[in-house]
Amino acid sequence: MKILFLTDNFPPEVNAPATRTYEHCCEWVKKGVEVTVITCAPNFPDGKVFNGYKNKVYQTEIIDGIKVVRVWTYIDANKGFIKRILDYLSFMVASFLAGIFIKTDIIVATSPQFFTSISGRWLSFWKRKPWVMEVRDLWPESIKAVGAMKTNLAITFFEFLEKRMYKSAYKIVVVTDSFKKQLINSHKIPASKIKVVKNGMNLEIFKPQNNNLQLLKKLNLMDKFVIGYLGTHGMAHGLDFILRTAKNIENEKIHFLFIGTGAKKTELLKLKEELKLTNVTMLGLMPKIEIKEYISILDVSLVNLKKADTFKSVIPSKIFESVAMYKPILLGVEGESKELIQNYGIGETFEPENETDLILKINQMRNNPKDYTDGFNKLINDFDRKKMALTMLEFIMAK
After folding, report:
1. CA-to-CA distance for 46 and 76, rounded, in angstroms?
2. Does residue 379 carry a pLDDT above 90?
3. Beta bridge partners of 329
4. 362 near 330, Cβ under 8 Å?
5. In 128-250, which ranges are continuous DSSP H helix?
6. Model confidence pLDDT, tens digit, residues 316-359
7. What is the number of helices (H) and of strands (E) in the chain?
8. Which of 341, 269, 244, 267 is nearest to 301 (CA)?
9. DSSP designation for 114
10. pLDDT tens digit sequence for 23-70
11. Residue 267 phi, psi (nearest 5)
C-alpha cells in the first residue's frame, strides 16, 4: 500500500497540523505502508525558513521511514490575506507538479486551507487514484470568524470551491463530531463518506512528570500559580483579551506564561509593555521535545479562542498534550471543546471574552483545586494518538 500525503505543515514545524500528520504517518509506516509526504520548506509560523533548509524547487529527505518531498512555495510572514493566498496557491501548484511523478495507491490532502485539497483532487484525476480530504478546520468559515475578511465575492468563490472539494473526495476525514454534522446538514455529504478521527496525544513523549524546578527558578516562577498558554499567537486565539485580564488580577502569586509565536506576537508584546504587566512572561517558539518541560511547570493549561460560532465546532489539540501530563485545562471556548472538558472532568470552562468569568475560574482553580485524575486517565485511554492513526488508516484503506 502506497499513500501520498499532501500537507503544507510538517516537522520540524511544531504546530498541531504538522504533529498530527507526522505521528499518523509514523504509525502507518510501522504497519508496512509506504508513505510519501509532499510539503514545503519549514517556515511556520514566522514565514522564515528554518536553519538547515532552503526554499528550493525540489528536495527530499527521509524522516522516521517517511519519504518527505519539499517543494518551492511563496514564503512570507503570515500577516496579510493576499500573502497567505499566494502561499497557498504556490503550494497547490508545486505539490501537484511533484505529485505527478510519485507512484501511489491513494492520495490524502489535508486542510485547513483547501487549496491543498485542490491539488489532491487534480492528482486524483490525472493519476486515476482515489483521494481523501482531511478537514482540520472549516475554511473559509474560520477566516470570517477571526475578522480577517468579510463575506464578499472572493469568500463566496472559496465557499463554492469548498463544496466542490467535499463532493469530489472519495472519503472525508474530520477532526470533530461538529464538523461531520455540518458536512451532512449544510453540504449534504453522505454520512458513510465521513469519518471522525479526532486529535490525540503522543503518550511516548507526553506523560506525567515532576515539575522542572530548574526551569521554575530560571523563569523566577517559584511559588507562583502558573497559568500557561503554549501555542500559536494568531488572530483566532484572542490573547489580547488574556493580557487585558491579567492587568486586572491583583493576586501577585498568579502568573501567566505564554510560549510560542504567530501573526499577533509582535502586537501582543507591545500590548504587554503598554499595560506594564509584571505577571506575564512571554517566550518564543520551543522545539517539540522541550515543550513537555514547560508543561511540567504549569498549574493550569490555558486554551482560548475568540468568541465566534465557528469555533464551537473545534477542539484545540493543545488540550490533549496538557492532559497527558495531568495538567487541568482552563478553557475559553464554547461548543464541542466545552463539552469535552465537562464530560471528562479535566478542568474548568469560562465564557469566551468574559473577564469576570475568567478571573472567577482562575481563583476557583487556585483556591479550591479539584482532583481531575479520573478524567485524565479516561481521556488518555480514549485519545491515544496511535489508536487514532490506525482508525484513520483502516478507514481510508477500506473499499
Report:
1. 8
2. yes
3. 301, 347
4. yes
5. 141-145, 153-168, 177-187, 213-218, 239-247
6. 999 999 999 999 999 999 999 999 999 999 999 999 999 999 99
7. 15, 14
8. 341
9. T
10. 999 999 999 999 999 999 999 888 889 999 999 999 999 999 999 999
11. -65, -40
Question: Using CA atoms, how far apart are residues 366 and 370, in angstroms rounded to an integer?
Answer: 9
Q: Give the CATH class of 2-200+384-397.
A: alpha beta
Give the span between the Cα atoms of 140 and 385, in whole angstroms. 27
**Per-residue model confidence as pLDDT tens digits over 290-308:** 999 999 999 999 999 999 8
Q: Pairing relation of β-strands 225-230 and 194-196?
A: unpaired
Q: Which residue has the higher pLDDT, 76 or 256?
A: 256
- Give the number of C-alpha atoms closer than 13 A to the C-alpha of residue 111, restricted to the C-beta side: 23
Residue 272 near residue 243, CB atoms below 8 Å: yes
The mean per-residue pLDDT over the stretch 251-255 comes to 96
Name the DSSP letter for residue 316: -
Q: Rounded to 5 degrees, what are φ and ψ at 287?
A: -60, 150
C-alpha cell of residue 267: 502586537
Q: Which residue reads 490525540 in cell numbers?
A: 200
The CATH H-level (homologous superfamily) assignment of domain 213-382 is Glycogen Phosphorylase B; (3.40.50.2000)
What number of residues does the chain have?
A: 399
Residue whose C-alpha is closest to residue 269's, from 306, 233, 302: 233
Q: Would you list the domain boundaries of the chain?
A: 2-200+384-397, 213-382
Do the domains 213-382 and 2-200+384-397 match in fold? yes
> What are the phi and psi torsion angles at 27 (to 5°)?
-70, -35
Mean pLDDT check: name the lowest of 78-87, 237-246, 274-283. 78-87
pLDDT for the residue numbered 252: 94
Tell me the pLDDT tens digit for each residue of 203-215.
Answer: 999 999 999 999 9
- Reduced to 3 states (helix: H, G, I; strand: E, B; else coil), residue 343 is helix
Task: Please answer whether residues 146 and 306 qualify as being in contact, where contact means their C-beta atoms are separated by less than 8 angstroms.
Answer: yes
- The set of cell numbers assigned to 126 is 490525472
